[in-house]
Amino acid sequence: MGIVGPNGAGKSTLIKACLELIPKASGRVTIYGEPYRKQRSLVGYVPQRESVDWDFPVSALDVVAMGTYRKLGWLRPVSKAQKELAKHAMDRLGVAHLANRQISQLSGGQQQRVFLARALVQDAQLYFMDEPFAAVDAATERAIVTLLHELKDQGKTCLVVHHDLATVAQYFDWVVLLNMRVVKAGPTEEIFTKENLKDTYGGRLALLEEAGQALRHAGNPGSYPGRSQQ
């Protein structure tokens, strides 16, 4: 599921409220029929890269192994078996060779893959991902899309905050259009229409379309409408 909307629409706030990282003004959130605090072991989370302290002195393998803490228990050393799980997850994301590198020494795309590997090693049923495609290289973007498809094929659910309108129909089979409220939600082929996007973005949609046309005319077909605006 792609969660799509303009800047300030509340996309990240929605995820944080679901995960009880911020207080809710009203309403309630249930995960498989129960409050989140009772279902933590079923949920994985990939935060925005900007919210992470990349200077913290840990290796990439240490970061991925953190995904096992919930099952392992706090203040207990990571076992060899848990490290093997972490290495396997890193291998799936193509960063196993970076296991001993300090996290601050990695590129933005590599850091994102490490955090995805951390979520993967949790073996969750429901994944919240806050703009995992933001400011990553093309290879990392393909790796993330592959991972999303693999998780879906395993019967898992991914809720992904996404900013690139040009790839929504390609990446997601369900979409939520959000602008301080849910404008529309449902199967992508039904909901992701120009009319619904106008209701979501208002006049900003025209700016996104014009920006996309200008980029294409400038000979930059790899840039998508919205990438420079969102």
List the helices and strands and how they pair.
Blueprint: E1 2-4, H1 11-18, E2 43-46, H2 60-65, H3 69-72, H4 80-92, H5 108-121, E3 126-130, H6 138-153, E4 157-162, H7 168-171, E5 174-178, E6 182-187, H8 188-191, H9 194-201, H10 204-217
Parallel strand pairs: 1-4, 1-5, 2-3, 3-4
Antiparallel strand pairs: 5-6
Helix pairs in contact: 4-5, 5-6
Overview features:
globular; six-stranded mixed β-sheet; disordered C terminus; 230 residues
Question: How would you describe this protein?
Answer:
By secondary structure, the protein is α/β, with parallel strands linked by helices. It is 40% helix and 13% strand. It has 10 helices and 6 strands, in the order βαβααααβαβαββααα. Helix 6 links the parallel strand 3 (126-130) and strand 4 (157-162). It is globular and about 55 Å long. Mean pLDDT is 84; it is low at 218-230.
Please give a quick description of this structure.
This protein has 230 residues and is an alpha/beta fold. It contains 10 helices and 6 strands; from the N terminus they run E-H-E-H-H-H-H-E-H-E-H-E-E-H-H-H. It has helices at residues 11-18, 60-65, 69-72, 80-92, 108-121, 138-153, 168-171, 188-191, 194-201, 204-217, and strands at residues 2-4, 43-46, 126-130, 157-162, 174-178, 182-187.
